[in-house]
Automatic annotation (TrEMBL):
The keyword Cytoplasm does not apply. PANTHER family: BETA-FRUCTOFURANOSIDASE, INSOLUBLE ISOENZYME CWINV1-RELATED. This is Beta-fructofuranosidase. CDD domains: GH32_Fruct1-like. Keywords: Glycosidase, Hydrolase. The lineage of its organism: Eukaryota, Viridiplantae, Streptophyta, Embryophyta, Tracheophyta. SMART domains: Glyco_32. It comes from Solanum stoloniferum. The keyword Amino-acid biosynthesis does not apply.
Length: 571
């Protein structure tokens, strides 16, 4: 009998003896909060009908159906009472809710069924590894499998009688408060499974490595897969291969020539990743560039985007990324009034850039079927100080693509030697600060009188080596006139865009959906996501969208297409 079959045998024996006591049907809470308005609920981003959601948990495709699991509070719009929410889709755009996959029902997960991943075992059998919190607040790792493998919707899951599979103890000396979020497992050439659990020891971020022959008995490796001194707790790790010769995604166990690996960790509200080489014989991951290690180099997103999880879509040979976008309201009572909190970013296809140095990200193609009524502008020039409205588009729910170029870069401002943090530079040089080459870009979720707007823009600087530096910013400082202002996080975000403006156009794609603005610069080299809450001056029919140039030099727009977006079916 194979290792995967032994998992199901143990579970089925447990069911035959004990019944289905650990499978509980979900009953919606009777505490339904009626919200006075839903102007900030999104039209085509995933969020449950009500209450709190956060981390994505191991999305997967099974029998042609996409499954999205997520951290969910079924009783309130605040964090707590965490279970695994579950929705299904045939296109990653329209979603149907299913009963929660995992509820708090056992001593090892009584205080919550927290983040984890799904893995397809032999024969394509899915299995969930997840973190539970027990009565003593220890974080332990557990297994669950479907009750009925013939059910394409996987509506019922059974927890393993062998849980917890891994727990902190006096022998392994693991800190039980910082031991969570198992990755999707991969099958090594030696025939044994591997997976990683996030950890912190003495302030050092660690990806603890575990091995198993049967997916039940896990042995900790002597050395971690990866670690970094003084980097803090590594949450929600992810580890997967990428092709060096193709944009196609790779199944998680793929190794060999023309393959690099990506290690990602979530820390300090940011998702960092590094690219390197995995040695399956020594079970170690080595970044290609230590200066671009976790916390030092690339991020998936330079705004609000956290606890992300990727999966391999075998039906289209893509690797797809989900990420949690939290609220930007500091007053927790606001969430309860609205009756919901948190949503997911648009699923992104990710692949390795031809340079091998970074990943590229782009909204999945399926989202484009929501586009309608395109507005197309031919090549135009934005004169210094100009602001021009993009008309004919539902500016509350839109998708816009455009490219900028400059005939000369003579007026580029000097990049100061002490500017080491692009976010700080964007804060100093916001959209309202006049410059040389920029700021130029978009003003979205804007009021007619420009009292409110969110700005996404570029600035071009001249470096100290006769090079040019491109800064991409998302400025929320004037996104809302709501009071008190301190209740709203109106941070300005920024990233350096690895584009040569002498040779390349500056492309920008922005998805706007009521209270979320997702922007992709340089064809996916840098992404910035923002949550904003304009007043009645800039919601629904009062919302406007503009292109602008607040620099002293004109810039060209060689491509501008904007679409209104239909509302997805997300029940």
């Amino acid at each position: 009998m194979g290792y995967a079959s032994s998992v199901w045998l143990g579970v089925l024996v447990f069911i035959s003896i004990h019944g289905y006591g650990n499978i509980r049907l979900f009953e919606a809470s009777s505490r339904v909060i009626q919200t006075p308005d839903q102007i900030y609920r999104t039209g085509y981003h995933f969020q449950p009908a009500k209450y709190w959601m956060n981390d994505p948990n191991g999305p997967k495709i099974y029998m042609g159906i996409y499954h999205f699991f997520y951290q969910y509070n079924p009783y309130d719009a605040q964090a707590g009472n965490i279970v695994w929410g579950h929705s299904t889709s045939t296109d990653l755009v329209n979603w149907t809710p299913q009963p929660p996959a995992l509820l708090r029902s056992e001593p090892y997960d009584f205080k919550g069924c927290f983040s984890g991943s799904t893995t397809l075992l032999s024969g394509g059998k899915p299995a969930i590894l997840y973190t539970g919190v027990d009565f003593s607040d220890n974080q332990v790792q557990n297994l669950a499998v479907p009750k009925n493998l013939a059910d394409p919707y996987l509506t019922e899951w059974v927890k393993s009688p062998y849980n917890p599979l891994i727990a902190p103890n006096s022998v392994n000396k693991i800190d039980g408060q910082n031991f969570r979020d198992p990755t999707t497992a991969w099958l090594n050439p030696d025939g044994n499974w591997r997976m990683v659990v996030g950890n912190q020891q003495n302030g050092n971020g660690i990806g603890l490595l575990y091995r198993s022959k049967n997916f039940i008995d896990w042995i900790q490796a002597e050395n971690p897969l990866h670690f970094m001194n003084n980097s803090g707790m590594w949450e929600c790790p992810d580890f997967f291969p990428v092709s060096t010769i193709s944009q196609n995604g790779l199944e998680t166990s793929t190794m060999g020539p023309n393959v690099k690996h990506v290690f990602k960790a979530s820390k300090a509200s940011t998702d960092f990743y590094t690219i390197g080489t995995y040695n399956p014989n020594k079970d170690i991951f080595i970044p290609d560039n230590k200066s671009l290690d976790i916390g030092l180099g690339f991020r998936y997103d330079y705004g609000k985007f956290y606890a992300s999880k990727s999966f391999f879509d075998s039906s289209t040979s893509r690797r797809i990324l989900f990420g949690w976008i939290n609220e930007s309201v500091n007053n927790l009572e606001t969430n309860s009034i609205r009756g919901w909190a948190g949503l997911q970013g648009i699923p992104r296809r990710i692949w390795l850039h031809k340079s091998g140095n970074q990943l590229l990200q782009w909204p999945i193609a399926e989202i484009e079927k929501l586009r309608m009524n395109p507005v197309i502008e031919d090549t135009t020039v934005l004169m210094p100080g100009s602001v021009r409205e993009i008309s004919g588009v539902n500016a509350t729910q839109a998708d816009i693509e455009m490219s900028f170029s400059a005939k000369t870069l003579e007026k580029a401002e000097k990049w100061e030697a002490n500017w080491t943090n692009p976010q700080q530079v964007c804060s100093i040089k916001g959209a309202s600060v006049k410059g040389g080459l920029g700021p130029f870009g978009l003003l979205v979720l804007a009021s007619k009188d420009m009292q409110e707007y969110t700005a996404i823009f570029f600035r071009i600087f001249k470096g100290n080596n006769n090079n040019f530096i491109v800064l991409m910013c998302s400025d929320q400082t004037r996104s809302s006139l709501h009071l008190p202002s301190s209740d709203y996080d109106k941070t300005t975000y920024g990233a350096l865009l690895n584009v040569d403006p002498l040779q390349e156009k500056l492309s920008l794609r922005t998805l706007i959906d009521h209270s979320i603005v997702e922007s992709f610069g340089g064809e996916g080299k840098a992404c910035i996501t923002a949550r904003v809450y304009p007043t009645n001056l800039a919601v629904d029919g009062a919302t406007h969208m503009y292109v602008f140039n607040n620099g002293s030099q004109s810039v060209g727009i060689s491509k501008l297409t904007a679409w209104s977006m239909k509302t997805a079916q997300i029940n």
